[in-house]
Design brief:
The protein is an alpha/beta fold. The chain is built from eleven helices and six strands. Helices cover 58% and strands 9% of the residues. The chain has a six-stranded parallel sheet with strand order 3-2-1-4-5-6, with helices on both faces.
């Protein structure tokens, strides 16, 4: 579990700091400070563990809820749509390709309640059409839209100078402006239900790893967006929640796709710049990316994120 991995890392770091301070700066003040910090550290970890392992209670009227999810073709969105459908929620599964394999698999494996919605979050017209269709289905079923889950996201690894500007624009358009478009379009329905907005961000919004600048920029902006919306929507009794996963084995983390994206970026880089870096540099970039993937240990247990999404969307008293 990521929580336990994180606790182990923090414990190791705290232990090292404790030894360093205790050995090299041994005064009563430092000793007392370490005791206070240790108390806060232990208390915080106990709270996190208790919170994690306590059974998460769902809303009592969960089967009366309706939820829109973007990016349901693959990954977290695909698995989350299936999970909510199994709980009896009316799911609007927004897919980039409504006739693609992911959408077809959702149709065949889920109940008739799940509705596939054609939704490219970068296209204003598709977003507007999605609002109209969702509103119509809600009216037919006499329901309100309880939550919008902004999950759609993309990533293209590469160094800044070796990444064409249109890649930065596309990443930002999906990961950040896509959330703005969908949120603004569906806010009237959320304000009516006093429901929830759930934004899928990433740990990369806080930490910029090798070759992740364009992705981290967009996710950092998503964090700021969520913080701002959390304040602005309080007056409408709409709560805002963020899910910030570490690295998981979704399509974004596919080794072949990553190598292909790095190669495309290099091919679209100006010849002058390529010459400055010299032959063989592309192989170094690919090695760096592969090494980063191996050391970051992408997790395959996507249910961890799906459980967090479920709690944030239809759980009682979720964290912000």
């Amino acid at each position: 579990m990521y929580l336990l991995d994180n606790l182990m890392k923090k414990t190791f770091i705290f232990g090292v700091l404790y030894v360093l301070f205790h050995v090299f700066i041994e005064t009563n003040f430092v000793r007392n400070l370490l005791v206070i910090l240790a108390a806060f550290y232990v208390t915080g970890n106990i709270f996190d563990l208790v919170w994690y392992f306590l059974p998460k209670r769902m809303l009592p009227d969960i089967q009366d809820k309706a939820v829109l999810i973007t990016g349901c073709d693959t990954g977290f969105g695909y698995e989350f749509a299936k999970k909510l459908d199994s709980l009896g929620v009316l799911v609007f599964a927004g897919c980039l390709y409504s006739e693609g394999d992911g959408a077809k698999e959702l149709k065949s494996s889920c109940s008739d309640k799940l509705k596939i919605i054609q939704l490219d979050v970068t296209q204003n017209e598709q977003v507007e059409n999605a609002v109209e269709r969702v509103a119509s289905i809600l009216q037919e079923n006499k329901k309100e839209l309880w939550a919008v889950v902004n999950n759609a996201g993309i990533a293209f690894p590469g160094e800044v100078e070796l990444t064409p500007i249109d890649v930065f624009q596309k990443t930002y358009d999906v990961n950040t402006l896509g959330q703005v478009r969908v949120t603004n379009a569906f806010l009237s329905l959320l304000k009516k239900s006093k429901g929830r907005l759930v934004n899928v961000i990433s740990a990369a919004g806080y930490l910029t790893g090798p070759l992740l600048t364009s992705y981290s920029m967009s996710k950092h902006a998503g964090i700021s967006l969520s913080n701002g919306l959390r304040q602005e929507l309080m007056k409408w009794s709409v709560s805002v929640h963020t899910i910030e996963p570490w690295f998981y084995r979704t399509d974004i983390m596919n080794d072949d796709k990553i190598d292909s994206d790095i190669q495309k970026n290099w091919d679209n880089t100006a010849k002058k710049v390529q010459e400055e870096y010299g032959e063989g540099y592309l192989d170094k970039v690919k090695w760096t990316q592969n090494f980063t993937l191996q050391t970051s240990r992408p997790r395959s247990a996507m249910y961890e994120v799906v459980d967090s999404l479920t709690h944030a969307t239809v759980g009682r008293n979720p964290k912000n």
